[in-house]
Inverse folding.
DNA sequence: CTGAAAGCGCTAACAA
DNA sequence: TTGTTAGCGCTTTCAG
C-alpha cells in the first residue's frame, strides 16, 4: 500500500490517532521518557499509519541534517571507489547518509559543490581535495561544520586529515628498483600541485639521492597529456629510462598502454612499479609490482575522525597517516616472487 | 571569513538589510518579478551577508528536497562506479544532489536504505536492484516519488528502467566462441536470481541451441563460492570446459585468478570471453575479449528518465535498452585483432 | 508589485 | 511525566 507523499502521515496524525499530544508522540519518537502504555499506543499508531519521520523537518529544527557530504575527484579510480564505499558504511552505522559529489579534479567545481552541500545543511564533509597547494575551501564551511580531508593534505589548513605514507612508499619502491641494479629510473606523475604527487616525488628523490644517482622526474600537469608520444620523447629519448615508477593509478594505466604502443612490455622490456594497487594488477604479464594503499581503511578512518568531531570531541586537528605496503610481484624485476 | 552555522544569515536578515519585506527577498531568490532596484538591493545584501538559502527549509515548505537517492549493490565494480559518476553529473546539471547508498546485494539492506532515503524526502530514486525476482521495494515509495531501475529489471513492476542487450550480448559472444570451433563452452555466473544473470544465460543458451550443442551452465549463488576448487570440479572436471564465458566482472576476476591457481592461463590454455569491460582488460596477456556495456550512458539515461518524470512528464513506464558491444581482443581465440 | 501572516513537520522551552 | 506554544527558514495565499 503506497503512502501519499502529499498526504503522508505526520506526527500530528500519529498523536491524534494515539490520542496523545504532539509532544508526547515526539518524545516517543526520540525515545524520551514516556508512560509505558502511551508508548505502546503511539507506536501502534505509527505502525498503523506507516509513519515515517520527515528528516527535513527534523533537521530544520535541530539545525542538523544527519547527512555528510563527500567530494572526490574521480569516482572511476578504484582507490576512490573503495574509500567512498567505506565512508558510506561508517556513515550508515552512525545513522547518517552521504551525499556524494565529484569535482573532476577542478577546484572551482569543488567549491561550488561544497556551497551546494552546505546549503543542504550537511553536518560534516569528507573531501579528497582537487588542489592541495592551499586551503581552497574551508572558508566555505560554516562554523560547526567540520571537514576532514583524505588522500591529500591541505597546506595552511587546520583540518583533520588522513593520508598514507606516500614518501616512504615511493622511497622503498625506488630503493627496491635500485636494488635490481636499475639506474635511470624515471618517476612519472601528474598534477604536480597535489600533495600526493609532491610527496611521492620527494620519496623518490630521497631514495635516488641516497644512492647517489641523479633523479629523473617527468610530470604532466594533467593526465590527458600523458600520451605515448610524450612517453617516448620525455621518458625514453630524453631521460633514457631503464625503469619506470608510476606515481598513481591513472598514470599507470596510461603508461602501460603507452608502452605497448611503443612496442614495449612493461615489466619485461622496462621494469615498472606503480603506486596504487588495483584488481588484476596481479594478472598482468608480468604481474605488476605496486605500492598498495589501504583504500577502505582510509575511508573508514576519515569517516571515524569526522564522526568523533561531530560528537563534539577534541579540538586540535589530527593527522592520521596510514601505511602503504610494497607488493612485489614481477614487473619490478623480481621473478615469480608471488 | 567563516559563517556561523548557528547564526547563518537568513532571508529575513537579507530583507532587513535591503530594507524590503521578507516576501520580496524571497521573490528575488526565486527570480520572480520584482522591482529592478529592489532586486539590486536584495542581491547586494545577499552578497554582503554571504547568504545561502537553507535548502532544508525550502524543501520542507515545497515538499521536495532537490535530492535523488541512488542505491547500488557494489561501488567497487567499475561498471557501477561509472554509472554513478554519470548519474551524479546529470543530477548536478539539474540542480540536484545524489545521496548514495550501497546495498551489498542484500535486499533487506536495500529496503532499509530506501526507507532512510524516503525519510529524507528524496524526489526520486535510481536503483540497481539487489534482487529482480519481484518488485522488492516500490511499496516503500510514497506516491510522487519515482524510481527508475538500471542494470536490472524488476518483475511485476511498472517502473522506468534502463538495461542493456544482455541476451544479445551473450548470444553474440557465444556464437563467436563457437565460430572458433569451441564446443564445450561453459557459462560461469553468479546470483541466478538476478535479471542480468538470467538474461545472459538465456542468450548463451540460445546460441548453443542454435548450434545444436548442449549448453553447460555453472552458476553459484554468491560470488564468494567461485573458488579455484569449484572451478576445477564444476567447470573442468564435470563440464570439461574448452572455453569460458564469464557472465560478469566479479566472475571474470575470480575466474582469471582461479585459472591461474589451476595452472592455466585464460585465453591461452582455455579461451575466455567476459561480460563487462574494464580498465586494463586490454593489457592482459592475452588481451581479454569482452562484451562491453555502456556504463556511463546507462547512468546518464537512467538519470534523464528520472528527471523527465520529475518534471511531470509521461505516465506509462518506459524501458530503455542500450546496446552492448562485442570487443574482440585475443582471449577468445582471435590473435592480435586489436 | 509588495507586505502581513499563516504554515510545512518537527523539537524544545516553559508551564501545568 | 505531559500539554501548550513558539518557532527553525522558507514559500505563499491573500489583501493592499
Amino acid at each position: 500500500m503506497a503512502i501519499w507523499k502529499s498526504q503522508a502521515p505526520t506526527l500530528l496524525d500519529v498523536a491524534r490517532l494515539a490520542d496523545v499530544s504532539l509532544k508526547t508522540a515526539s518524545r516517543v519518537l526520540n525515545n524520551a521518557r514516556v508512560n509505558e502504555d502511551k508508548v505502546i499506543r503511539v507506536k501502534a499508531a505509527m505502525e498503523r499509519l506507516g509513519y515515517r519521520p520527515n528528516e527535513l523537518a527534523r533537521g530544520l529544527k535541530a539545525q542538523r541534517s544527519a547527512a555528510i557530504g563527500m567530494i572526490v575527484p574521480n569516482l572511476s579510480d578504484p582507490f576512490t571507489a573503495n574509500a567512498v564505499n567505506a565512508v558510506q558504511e561508517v556513515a550508515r552505522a552512525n545513522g547518517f547518509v552521504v551525499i556524494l559529489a565529484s569535482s573532476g579534479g577542478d577546484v572551482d567545481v569543488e567549491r561550488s559543490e561544497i556551497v551546494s552541500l552546505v546549503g543542504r545543511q550537511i553536518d560534516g564533509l569528507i573531501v579528497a581535495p582537487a588542489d592541495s597547494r592551499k586551503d581552497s575551501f574551508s572558508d566555505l564551511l560554516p562554523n560547526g561544520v567540520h571537514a576532514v580531508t583524505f588522500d591529500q593534505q591541505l597546506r595552511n589548513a587546520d583540518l583533520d586529515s588522513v593520508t598514507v605514507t606516500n614518501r616512504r612508499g615511493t622511497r622503498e619502491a625506488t630503493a627496491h628498483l635500485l636494488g635490481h641494479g636499475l639506474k635511470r629510473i624515471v618517476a612519472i606523475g601528474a598534477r604536480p600541485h597535489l600533495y600526493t604527487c609532491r610527496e611521492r616525488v620527494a620519496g623518490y628523490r630521497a631514495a635516488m639521492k641516497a644512492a647517489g644517482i641523479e633523479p629523473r622526474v617527468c610530470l604532466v600537469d594533467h593526465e590527458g597529456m600523458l600520451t605515448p608520444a610524450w612517453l617516448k620523447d620525455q621518458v625514453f629519448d630524453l631521460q633514457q629510462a631503464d625503469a619506470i615508477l608510476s606515481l598513481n593509478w591513472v598514470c599507470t594505466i596510461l603508461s602501460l598502454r603507452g608502452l605497448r604502443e611503443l612496442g614495449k612490455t612493461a615489466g619485461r622490456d622496462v621494469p615498472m612499479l606503480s603506486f596504487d594497487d588495483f584488481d588484476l594488477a596481479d594478472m598482468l604479464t608480468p604481474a605488476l609490482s605496486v605500492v598498495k594503499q589501504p583504500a577502505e581503511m582510509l575511508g573508514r578512518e576519515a569517516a571515524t575522525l569526522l564522526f568523533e568531531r561531530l560528537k563534539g570531541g577534541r579540538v586540535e586537528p589530527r593527522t592520521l597517516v596510514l601505511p602503504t605496503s610494497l607488493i612485489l610481484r614481477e614487473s619490478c624485476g623480481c621473478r615469480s616472487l608471488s
